[in-house]
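dumping these here so i dont lose them again. two proteins, back to back, each one seq then structure tokens. dont judge the mess
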Amino acid sequence: MNNDKIFEITMHGRGGQGAITAALLLCEIAYADGYTDVLSIPKIGAERRGAPIKAFTKLSRNREIKNYAAVEDADITIIFDASLIPLPGVADAVKHGTVLVNTNQTIDVSKFPKECKIYTVPVTDIALKLNLTTAGYPIINVPLLGALTQIKYKDETGEMDLGLHLKTIEKIALKKFGSRGHLNYEAAVKASEQVKEIQ
């Protein structure tokens, strides 16, 4: 891993899917796994369930993060709902790096640059099977972070992962969600086992 790199991650979700919470949780997990500076940046517009939203995370092992602006060229893009892919500012904003999509369907990889690594994982299905829901809606943020532990990022130095661990997700989930933390962790483990690289 390039320890001098600041990883920039963009999360595309819909209101109620937990993208902003996921960005915050990712900071906590990364810090517990050895990153020395972490930053979460929510972008809040129309705050209604189902409306497209963005959240950003920056992670650094050795360098201080001095840029607090939104991410414009993400190393990793996480898409909480495949229906977001055609919307302006989602697939067309991806320039390089890795994309992780929550879906159980085949996606049109032509929407993304050819050099991208693209992964899919059916976290909605996982959450529903485990009854990991709130008000009838599946909770998918922690399972997506579980999937993130398995994906690779490729840059000029080679191929690497973020160095995040499922056991750290378990510890943070138990601290944040109490008795529901176990179910979140179980979903994260299942998501990590069902990640598929498609490009």
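---- next one ----
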Amino acid sequence: MALRHAILAALREEEASGYELSKRFDVSVANFWPATPQQIYRELDRLEADGLLDAKLVEQDRRPNKRVFSPTAAGEEELGRFIEVPSRPTAIRDDLLVKVVALDDDNAEAVTAAIEDRLEQSKAKLGLYQRIRAAMLGDLDEDEYLATGQQLGNYLALRRGISFERDNQAWCRSSLKAIAGRRTGIPG
């Protein structure tokens, strides 16, 4: 998947400026497709040049003017083509796993620290995702939201992010226990 498809999908819901879109990415698609604001701005320009997005200038009184983007018919068609292509399984590309593969007695402390750091990062992400989930649900329980909620796709992607971070934490804890067990002679 290209960043362009993630942007087109994010803009289907509501037009946005580059700034607004980067903030939206932080709370919606970042759990599966991270992008820096600079990457988003560059891709917005490319999508506009390719005729997949329209941009309009919005004049503001107390702030600088901004450009607001929305998909064109060609952008909708491009997203539709992308949706029709079968998805391939995702390959894990994670530098932490390279460190774990290289684990030995000499670097066990450094690898342990890296796993502990990942655990803390995962806890923070999970906390953010759970706050977003609570805001999305509002007064509805999950079953009610799944039946009537306005942002079903975003909610389902968010659920995957929550599941992913819970699994990350379980893996981190079991790995830390196994490494500690090797170092102390008490199996993890």
